[in-house]
Amino acid sequence: MTETPRAHIAMFSIAAHGHVNPSLDVIRELVDRGHRVSYAIPASFADKVAATGAEPVIWTSTLPTDEDPDAWGTELIDNIEPFLADAVQALPQLADAFAATSPTSSCTTSPPIPPASSPTAGASPPSPSGPTWSRGRGTRRRWPNR
Q1: Contact present, 98 and 38 (Cβ < 8 Å)
Q2: Which one of 62, 79, 132, 143 is most buried, by most CB atoms within 10 A?
Q3: pTM, rounded to two decimals
Q4: Dist. CA 122–CA 136, nearest whole Å
Q5: How far apart are CA 101 and CA 126, in angstroms?
Q6: DSSP H or E run through 135
Q7: pLDDT band at 102, cuts 50/70/90?
Q8: What three-state secondary structure class fits 101?
Q9: Contacts for 132 with CB less than 8 Å, ≥ 6 apart
Q10: Residues 6+ away with beta carbon under 8 Å from 101
Q11: Average pLDDT of span 30-53
Q12: Does the pLDDT value for residue 116 go beyond 70?
């Protein structure tokens, strides 16, 4: 019987319980099946991620924290702009963190870093996969430069 090759999966998430917690069982299952998972996450969730067997890849978030909930503002746009700013400042951190490794696939719960612009993505767009975006072997397509 031929053994299935093991993947190196890069997971990206924002530091929010509603994004991290639902992903943990999937991440644990991937690790249990022998895959290497590098989970890019702010330090406040590193212990939760490590408990799955995945490797936390720490990046610094600029999102407001539980200690300062008023920093989110009162208007809808006040709640959206911090995510964009966080994604923009996170990308160089993640590019540096993944520079020495070559994940075969990437996945995210939602932005901060859509897989199409993630450090592992090259020039390919994301392929939707259920409630997350995933990208990996078999889903790569070349798109013209824009």
Answers
A1: yes
A2: 132
A3: 0.72
A4: 11
A5: 20
A6: strand 132-136
A7: confident
A8: coil
A9: 23, 107, 108, 109, 110
A10: 8, 38
A11: 95
A12: no
